[in-house]
Design goal:
single chain, 260 residues, mainly alpha, 76% helix
Length: 260
């Protein structure tokens, strides 16, 4: 039934869909004990249903009041990875259909709540990834004052995978923040990963150096990246040193002669 909501909606029309079908759908929002397969079926048919609804609901009231809360319920309460990934895919699909202001009002608060929930590792990783993916929507002020405090905390988290998600999802954040915040805040958070206990996290830290050189074209940022590079070149793990050597030519092409 859930998978074919779009077909039923087309048959009975918009008004009847809202009046008769959506009271059934709202059980997904109100009853978290519903089997995961029901949520999964709902997500499978959601894209076509969204297109149908948005043809009539120009203010997107149904989207924000009835559909996004279902995605929230899944991200906050469910454990099945396949279902959680479907919820994220649908959230990203919705984000393509809304304006920046609608994102601020309806999606950003949910992401911040997910980021703050230390008991929900998957939710925190989801928030980190979407913060990075939507950095162009967030803009400098929201990144600096809402997102960076979370990245600061995540970079110090005891959980290796949370820290890895943090270092892996920095580039678009870096691209969409002003140089002052990049120099004084974000590069400092990034540099911390040169000392991360995980060799994989240190390797990812190294991977990012060329990309950060392209973004942060100031002496202060290059000096900080050089310190990170030299630190990683002396890493105890050959795995990390080899990665440093692989980016050596590209990295020095960004440096001034006196630094080389």
């Amino acid at each position: 039934f859930m998978k074919n909501l779009y077909s039923y909606a087309e048959e009975i029309g918009y008004e009847n869909t809202i009046g008769f079908l959506f009271p059934l759908v709202q059980e997904l929002k109100c009853n978290t004990d519903i089997n995961d397969s029901i949520y999964s079926s709902f997500f499978d048919g959601l894209d076509k249903l969204l297109d149908f609804l948005l043809n009539y609901d120009k203010e997107k009231k149904v989207l924000f009041s009835k559909i996004i809360p279902i995605i929230e319920i899944v991200l906050y309460n469910k454990k099945d990875i396949i279902l959680l990934n479907k919820a994220i895919d649908k959230l990203k699909s919705i984000m393509l259909r809304i304006t920046r202001e609608e994102f601020y009002q309806n999606i950003l608060p949910m992401l911040i709540q997910l980021a703050n929930n230390e008991k929900n590792e998957f939710g925190q990783e989801t928030a980190i990834e979407i913060f990075n993916d939507t950095a162009h929507l967030l803009g400098n002020e929201i990144i600096e004052f809402c997102v960076l405090p979370h990245f600061q905390a995540f970079s110090l988290d005891d959980n290796e995978l949370i820290r890895r998600c943090c270092i892996s999802n920095m580039i678009h954040i870096c691209e969409n923040i002003n140089y002052s915040a990049l120099e004084n805040k974000l590069i400092i958070i990034y540099s911390r990963f040169a000392n991360d206990p995980s060799k994989m996290n240190r390797k990812i830290c190294c991977d990012l150096i060329p990309s950060l050189c392209k973004i942060g074209k100031t002496d202060l940022i290059f000096d900080q990246l050089l310190k990170v590079y030299l630190k990683l070149m002396n890493d105890k793990e050959s795995f990390v040193k080899i990665q440093c050597l692989s980016i050596f030519g590209e990295f020095i092409s960004y440096l001034k002669i006196e630094k080389i």
